């Protein structure tokens, strides 16, 4: 078992690098033997560049590593240029091939003991030193500049809360220009360096003296505000939304008013980073995606498949026989709509027969066109797996279908589309945002039939746009809404509750007792005890950690995701001598933990909302990180662990596209700001066999009555209507 490291209070030490035991050039991680004058110590941390013989001040803490013993773990360091004649000669002797102590001494004799500063400020003088060739002089100048630039960069930005690891990435990207970039416009780091956001760049800007009302700062703030709006689902913002948001971000007293913000917007428009369309200001990529998607969808709308009516009837009858059922009129109409149009939508809640209709479409299409390809896709891996289980055929994530490559993007696109004629069915389409939808339709040729399946009453996508809702409300895309609830007809109270919530009716909470259990609480402070008791009961009933899911609307507070995750983990996966546990950057991972991906990671093939289990922890050496089992095992190095979080509990938004045998849903009044009908409906419909509602009845009523769907700024609906002549 690897025990957590014992640490001391922070301190600063000074010493010379005696030996570089290890240095990872990609991330700057190093293990050093350092001569402090009194002793040799082991120092570990991240440095942009390191050479034996260099002197540094290191700031950090002593740690007692269980395997390697006492080490000094530094989080900041600064190069100290030598001051003595002997030190300068030794330093110069390491900078160029063929320059040893004798030639180095000539440089000191010729230029004086402040020769290092002289070489930096007047490099041409070095070429005049006898015995130093032009090639050697060039090497010395380049090496000295490189070392001092790295030292200056690290000293400058690491004091602003930036890690040496990030300084290494910045220098690796910009090289000798790093200092110039940081001093002239550090906000470009937010665009070009992963791990740097507006706030980090802003701290650096303040350190190097960028004025509070500098145009580059205001431009960066405008882009940050528009980027943040995407997280709230918006494709654009209006000027009246941008101005107060930018002023709040930059702080009072910064001297930035409406004129400065307007000038920043205009400058970004001239640079083609923003697009203004009437009273809407878009990030350029979102404007392109929205316009392109509308054009591609409109190109499919209205195109009818050339099918003989008799052949259609035979195909429908064949599908019925294959399924061993007789389709209800609404189901039959949905299948016909899909088969006779090049673009159609099938919507409806859980239990209304979407899976039956999907299977019917596939069977009938294959009967009509036995040699045409059929593609099945969903936005997430979990949704794709469910679709595959329901249909018995291979289903892929949209990214895998389009052969996403992290360096070149989607390989299946407008120039290399899906094979056609054929059929594409996309399930859980309500989760698809405007960008992904545009990429998907770019790969769809004109002679393909596309069926979008999803529940329009669920929460919209996490990303910008409301593609499914906008497409339906436009009235342009042929749509069938399945209304009859077969699960409800079979006595499922989960289905009945969901349907009542969807219709704005408060369920009779006190009388639910079949597959729905209501546990009333007096407030948020009682939630953890009730939920952990119910989890304990679930474990004794045979449910495993991957079989149940606790859902709550918010992260913070006594009834939020964070508190619930910690409490449930201590019950489900407590620390034990046989378990491996390690803390990375303040976050503890334990072998066996249920974890969730919170940010798409295309190179690893994992996406926001994917749930897995920790199967291994590497806590020693360079390649520290965590192994997680999804469909396959994936390794997350230490620097990527901010993309993982505990998943015993999660927000309702994160649960989209999933079903769980047991769902424990929290709904209390302290979550007032998040109590909305579509959120409660989405939470209830995640339960496949059993639902436990831990709630205050007043909170459920508030949620059901609140049918205000948060407006998302998008013009997809208007574009679809305009392109189709209505």
Calculate Rg over CA atoms: 31 Å
- Distance, first to last CA: 68 Å
How would a textbook summarize the main sheet? 6 strands, parallel
How many beta strands in the DSSP annotation? 28
What does this structure look like?
The protein has 26 helices and 28 strands. The relative contact order is 0.08. The longest helix is centred in the N-terminal third of the chain and has 25 residues, at 134-158. The strands form seven sheets. A six-stranded parallel β-sheet has the order 11-10-14-15-9-16. A hairpin with a 4-residue loop joins strand 3 (29-35) and strand 4 (40-46). It has 726 residues and is of the alpha/beta class.
Summarize the structure.
The protein is of the alpha/beta class and 726 residues long.
What distinguishing features does this structure have?
6-stranded parallel sheet, 5-stranded mixed barrel, 26 helices, 28 strands, 39% helix
Topology (elements, then pairings):
Blueprint: E1 6-7, E2 11-23, E3 29-35, E4 40-46, E5 55-65, E6 69-80, H1 85-92, H2 101-111, H3 115-121, H4 134-158, H5 164-174, H6 178-184, H7 188-192, H8 198-207, H9 215-231, H10 239-250, H11 258-270, E7 274-277, E8 280-283, H12 284-300, H13 309-323, H14 329-340, E9 343-348, H15 354-368, E10 374-378, H16 381-391, E11 396-397, H17 398-401, E12 404-405, E13 409-410, E14 422-426, H18 434-442, E15 448-454, H19 467-473, E16 479-482, H20 486-489, H21 493-503, E17 516-520, H22 527-540, E18 548-552, H23 561-572, E19 581-584, E20 587-590, E21 594-597, E22 611-618, E23 625-629, E24 633-637, E25 644-646, E26 649-651, E27 660-667, H24 677-684, E28 687-695, H25 697-705, H26 716-723
Parallel strand pairs: 4-6, 9-15, 9-16, 10-11, 10-14, 14-15, 17-28, 18-26, 18-27, 27-28
Antiparallel strand pairs: 1-5, 2-3, 2-5, 3-4, 5-6, 7-8, 12-13, 19-20, 21-22, 21-25, 22-23, 23-24
Helix pairs in contact: 1-2, 4-5, 9-10, 9-11, 12-18, 12-26, 13-15, 14-15, 21-24, 22-23, 24-25
